[in-house]
Structure formats: C-alpha cells, structure tokens
Amino acid sequence: MSVGRKTMASLLIPSVTQTLSPRLARSIHNSSSVSKALSFVLNNLRTGTSSNEDQRDGKMLRMLMFGKPGAGKGTLSARLVKKYDILSLSTGDLLRQHIAERTDIGRQAEEIVAQGSLLPDDIMLKVVTSKLDLLHSKHWILDGFPRTLGQGKLLDTHLHNHGIPLSLVVNLDVPDQVILSRISDRWVHLPSGRVYNMSYNKPKVDGFDDETGEPLIKRPDDNPEIFSRRLSQFYASTSPLLSYYASQPKSARLVTLQGETSDEVWPKLEAVLRGSFQGLRERSETRPVWRKHSLSDALMAKEKSSTGCKSAATR
Fold first, then answer.
1. Kind of pairing, strands 186-189 and 194-197?
2. Residue 142 Cα distances to 66, 71, 94, 176, angstroms
3. Is 193 left (phi over 0), alpha (psi -120 to 50) or beta?
4. What is the spatial distance between Cα 178 and Cα 196, in angstroms, rounded to a whole number?
5. Count of Cβ atoms closer than 10 Å to residue 227 Cβ
6. Which UniProt keywords apply (predicted)?
7. From CA 145, how far away is CA 107, in angstroms rounded?
8. Within 10 Å of residue 290's Cβ, how many Cβ atoms?
9. Which of 229, 251, 230 is nearest to 241 (CA)?
10. Burial class (CB in 10 A: 0-12, 13-18, 19+), 3
11. Quick check: helix, strand or coil at residue 299?
12. pLDDT tens series, the chain, 315 aa
C-alpha cells in the first residue's frame, strides 16, 4: 500500500517539478505534504446520490468549492453568481465588515490582528456563521473558509446544529501543468477579485477591467517557484478536508469535476446544480450582479428593513 501511495503521489506533480530548479523539485518530491496527494485523488469516491436526508436538506444550495491555486474557483463562482440567484460570501469581506461595524466579534478580531496573530478557529467560525445563520432561504457559496480540517469540522457541526447543513462540495481537478501555464497569463482586478486570462477569458480591452475600466495587475505570487509552494500547502491542508467530506455518510455531496479550462468545467458544474437544485432560479438580465465575494444589496436592505421595523414597533 505504501508503494501505491508513493506512486500515485508522484504522478500528480511531475509537470510542476519538471519546470523548476533541481533543488526545488527535490524539495517538492520529498515534502511530506505530497504524500497526501492520494487523498486528493480519492476525493471523487462520494459522487453518487445522497441519502434521503441529504436530499431533503439539500434543496438549498450551500456550497464550498475547492481546487488547486489557479484552478478557476473565482472565475466559476463569479459565473454562478452572475447567472443564478446565489450569494457569494467571502470570509475576508465578512471579517472586514465586522471590524468596520465595531461588532463584538469585530473588536475581538481587530485586537488579535493588531497584535500580528492569526485569528483562532472559533473567532473565524463566528465571523462566517453570523451571516450564514441568516440565510436559511438563500442559496450561497462560501469562499475562504474552511481552510483546515479542524475548521471544516467546526463549520459542519454548527451548520447541522442550526438545520442548514452544507449540500454540495465541489472539487476542481485541473492538471498541474495546465495551471502552471495558466498563471503566467493571469491578470486580476484587485478591488473586485475578477480574474482574466490572456489565453482564455480575455478582458474586452487588454489590461483593463470589463466592469470598471480600471487597470488590471499581475499578482506577485503568480510565478512557478511560489506556485510550487502553494501547491504543497494545498495538498497539506485541503486534501484532508476533502477526505473528511468524502468519508461522512450524512455530509454534503462531494463532486469532483475535471477539466483544463473554466469553459470546459462550466457545463459540468451547471449540470450538477440543475440536477440537484431544481429551485435554483436564473437572475433577470437587467439585474446588476457581478459582485464577487460580498453579500447582495438586497440581503443587506432586508436586514436593515427588519431592524427598522423592530425599532418602530418598540416606540
């Protein structure tokens, strides 16, 4: 069995190591995180039908999307939000919102961040679930959390206890050599997180964002050396998470989608959503929608309206 694990792991990243210096290639091959690659391959074991309980709880899309760096998570999430009535929530945006609004969680987080420390898992869970708990009747995609197995278990427990369990976990399986060539052509609009690629998904005007006309930039970590380290980190942290979701009999449905481009993966992703979530509606074409990684204006207005009604009722 140990030989099989080593052989499988060696098949996953040769395309990356061949493009790097011999010293760096050896460090990747010898990394203990590479041994977790087999778990990543086995993540498509639970792609069959869910149990009756899962189907009943899964009428609402409550989704996580995982994939190697550069696999197209942001691009595909943005396309889902643009076409369907889905909220895309970013952990970073939610944290900044708490800090800006001076909530109890925000004050705790701000103090910890000011000290240069990482936020504990329980604080991060509160940041995320403070919004998720309000979305019983909303379809959503969560970005940036969980990142570790411990966070995944905490989130799973909380959502189950509140009757809003995850319904779908998508694993984007894109070959390493494809991602490596892709990142050299990638440009981003940092304020919105929109991602463009000069090989596909090009901006309408080279070098400028389609929506705002603002300049696009190259991310400093979009190079082979840094990519290899991020890939090792992915295997170390995400593979155990995916193995966890694959092993839970009453957890969300786990689907692995393979492809080399977002355009190739997109119809497969749509087929999964349309087949499992018949109540998912397309947006009106006249509705402004490309707001990646934030709560919708409608949701925020609803919360404010609800607060206003309560205040009026107490007068």
1. antiparallel
2. 10, 16, 11, 24
3. left
4. 15
5. 23
6. Kinase, Transferase
7. 20
8. 12
9. 251
10. exposed
11. helix
12. 444 434 333 333 444 444 444 444 444 444 444 434 333 333 333 443 333 343 344 489 999 999 988 888 988 999 999 999 999 999 988 999 999 999 999 999 999 989 888 899 999 999 999 999 999 999 999 998 999 999 999 999 999 999 999 999 999 999 988 888 777 788 899 888 788 888 778 899 999 999 999 999 988 777 778 888 888 888 899 999 999 999 987 778 999 999 998 899 999 999 999 999 988 999 886 444 433 333 333 334 444 444 444 444 444
Distance in angstroms (rounded) separating the CA atoms of residues 81 and 258: 21
How many CB atoms within 10 Å of residue 185?
15
* Residue written as token pair 């087999």: 38
Strands 62-67 and 168-173: parallel
| 60 close to 165: Cβ distance less than 8 angstroms | no
pTM over 0.70: no
- Total number of residues shown for the chain: 315
